[in-house]
Design goal:
Structural class: alpha+beta
Distance between the termini: 67 Å
Radius of gyration: 26 Å
Largest sheet: 8 strands, antiparallel
Number of helices: 11
Helix content: 10-25%
Number of strands: 33
Shape: globular
Strand content: 25-35%
Oligomer: single chain
């Protein structure tokens, strides 16, 4: 009896150690670069022999919202652990501190920089010369900027010098438009950020097309505050005022028509502040025959073109993915970024930087997002997973910064139609199991589509609710998110879902058409007629650090790639769909397949997917 008890105890201990190792492996590799700075520990060591200055003083003189700044600095006792922090607003001393525990001693500095570079980043001889300069790329973020020279590395910062402040000409300007499908096929939403509250200026969109004269539509305005955040760092060192987020609904659009638009604000003196002019093509009518091209990826995050924060190697593929999409933008109609959007993890300034990075894409085609663990999860906040992955944002920032056509944006599941496609976007950070509110939505989304008009039925969620050969899923023995497919696979099969997409795991993998862990179709690249099962695709290699595959050779896996990339779906009629996986490094196709079928093939009986019949005449 004693030996059985000891064996059981050892087994339990091994399971706990395995779980801890999995969690630690994820947490170590997913450290937000700004979180490495122990800003609360900063000591003041200002000295006359250290100086720092920035130029030019005024940015955006020609209407630019992105500018390069030169920062020159010197120190008579230089070392390789010195770094330059960019602060915005320019005033960053302890007088602006918010303390979650009032009994704690207020630190000298309690707001993190928006980015940083090491002093020797562009001059390896700095430790000998004591003089250097670096270039930062700044975006308009509604406030002025200053730069600080620190010693002591990131873990024991010593403030040695503070620069002059610099600013954009109009820091409140309307910027970074994000298009999204509305709740009906002929509605487009435009969301943007500005420094204008409604008591200061009235937000609006001016828009037109070749067949529709110039119109103006009002916009709603939202924001959020520090007390909207669930925890630190979002409530503390990561907090930064988000400005005001405006959304306008452009209704009754003609199908497949190019519209031009610009965001504006009517000031109290009767004058207008306008953005530059953008354009988009409206969505096709549901079921309409036309060329329709869809991009899908997850976990892209953001990166800095000036090299800031890159010692962390946090999202090394992000800019490659962004740039490949921009390069091919004329051949893209809609984008789905399925969770882990910015990896801001409670450092609110990073959301502006992300919207600036994707602006060329999101201002031109609908940029549809899903909720991931790094947007939503926080202990005690109602998320399905009780983890601190959002850095205290608990979904508030994502739900405000990006519009999705959900009934309740705090519950981030929704459906959207694009021509011959129906997309059912799940929220893996809320309960999806049978009997839950979301499960009912998923089934309704599948059941309500007319497959004669919209033959291509696509499911997506951030976490892998289907199949993945990820190393850590393999250690758990499930090759899926725990409890992932148990409830949903019968819905995929019953409603003949064509493809299910996931992020969360940072690589690419495609399964065979599969049901209940078994391949149901032996074809690998050219599917015709009734496919018999759903193809599951992990496309989480948008930009964040890569995830290793399990050493187990899963029988259902057809293609794996340990690299960054994205998927493109193309259809121009009801009978053919082309799938391509492209690497972000070169934009070339590395995996592909096609589906060719008729409407009767969609109606055909498959295992656990047959409609009831009767012998009655």
């Amino acid at each position: 009896m004693k030996s059985v008890f000891v064996y059981t105890l050892l087994l339990l201990l091994l399971l706990i150690l395995n779980l801890v190792s999995v969690l630690l492996a994820h947490s170590v590799t997913e450290e937000q670069p700004l979180s490495k700075i122990a800003i609360h520990k900063t000591t003041i060591s200002l000295k006359d022999s250290a100086s720092i200055k920035a130029s030019p003083l005024l940015l955006g003189l020609q209407g630019e919202d992105t500018e390069w700044v030169v920062v020159e600095f010197e120190n008579d006792e230089p070392s390789n652990d010195e770094w330059i922090g960019v602060f915005s607003p320019a005033k960053f001393n302890g007088s602006v501190c918010y303390m979650e525990n009032p009994k704690e001693q207020s630190p000298h500095i309690c707001t993190a920089p928006i980015k940083y570079q090491f002093a020797n980043f562009s001059n390896s001889e700095y430790a000998n010369s004591g003089k250097a300069s670096v270039k930062f790329q700044l975006i308009n973020q509604r406030a002025d900027f200053s730069f600080a020279l620190f010693g002591g590395g990131l873990s024991n910062p010593k403030l040695m010098a503070v620069s002059n402040s610099i600013s954009f000409v109009n820091p409140k300007a309307p910027l970074y438009p994000r298009l999204a499908q509305g709740k009906s096929w002929n509605e487009m939403t435009v969301t943007w950020t500005s420094g204008y509250n409604v008591d200061e200026a009235v937000p609006l969109i001016e828009w037109s097309s070749e067949i529709q004269s110039k119109m103006r539509s009002p916009a709603g305005t939202l924001t959020f505050h520090r007390n909207s955040m669930c925890g630190s760092p979002a409530r503390t060192v990561g907090w930064r005022d988000p400005g005001f987020i405006h959304t306008s609904f452009l209704k009754n659009l003609w199908p497949n028509i190019v519209y031009t638009y610009k965001m504006g604000h009517l000031l109290s003196n009767g004058s207008y502040v306008w953005s530059k002019t953008y354009s988009f093509r409206s969505s096709p009518y549901p079921g309409q025959y036309s060329l329709q091209r869809v991009i899908i990826f997850g976990d892209m995050g953001k990166a800095e073109r000036d090299g800031s924060n890159e010692y962390s190697n946090y999202q090394p593929g992000s800019l490659n993915t962004t740039d490949q999409l921009i390069k091919d933008l004329k051949n893209i109609d809609i984008v789905f970024h399925i969770g882990d959007i910015t990896y801001a993890n409670g450092y609110i300034s990073q959301w502006d930087q992300f919207t600036a990075q994707v602006e060329p894409i999101a201002s031109t085609v609908p940029y549809m997002v899903a909720s991931g663990n790094h947007e939503r999860d926080w202990p005690g906040s109602g998320s399905f997973y009780d983890t601190p992955d959002s850095g205290g944002e608990c979904g508030v920032v994502a739900e405000t910064m990006f519009y999705v056509p959900a009934e309740n944006r705090a519950k981030f599941w929704y459906s959207t139609d694009y021509g011959m496609f129906r997309f059912c976007i799940a929220d893996s950070e809320h309960d999806w199991r049978e009997g839950s509110e979301q499960y009912k939505f998923i089934e309704q989304c599948f059941a309500s589509v007319d497959r004669r008009k919209q033959p291509w039925l696509i499911f997506s969620a951030h976490r892998v609710l289907g199949y993945s050969s990820d190393k850590y899923y393999g250690l758990e023995g499930s090759f899926e998110e725990p409890m992932g497919r148990e409830s949903l696979q019968k819905l995929w099969q019953k409603y003949k879902v064509d493809i299910a997409f996931y992020g969360h795991v940072h690589n690419y993998e495609r399964s065979c058409p599969i049901y209940q862990n078994k391949c149901v179709n032996s074809e690998k690249s050219h599917y015709s007629g009734t496919v018999d099962g759903t193809i599951h695709v992990v496309v989480g290699g948008g930009g964040s650090h890569l995830s290793e595959f399990s050493t187990v050779n899963t029988s259902w896996s057809l293609y794996k790639d340990y690299d960054w990339g994205f998927v493109k779906l193309t259809s121009h009629n009801h009978s053919s769909l082309a799938f391509e996986y492209k690497k972000s490094s070169d934009g070339k196709v590395y995996d592909s397949f096609t589906i060719s079928r008729d409407y009767r093939d969609v109606l055909a009986c498959v295992h656990d997917g047959c409609q009831p019949t009767t012998m009655a005449s």
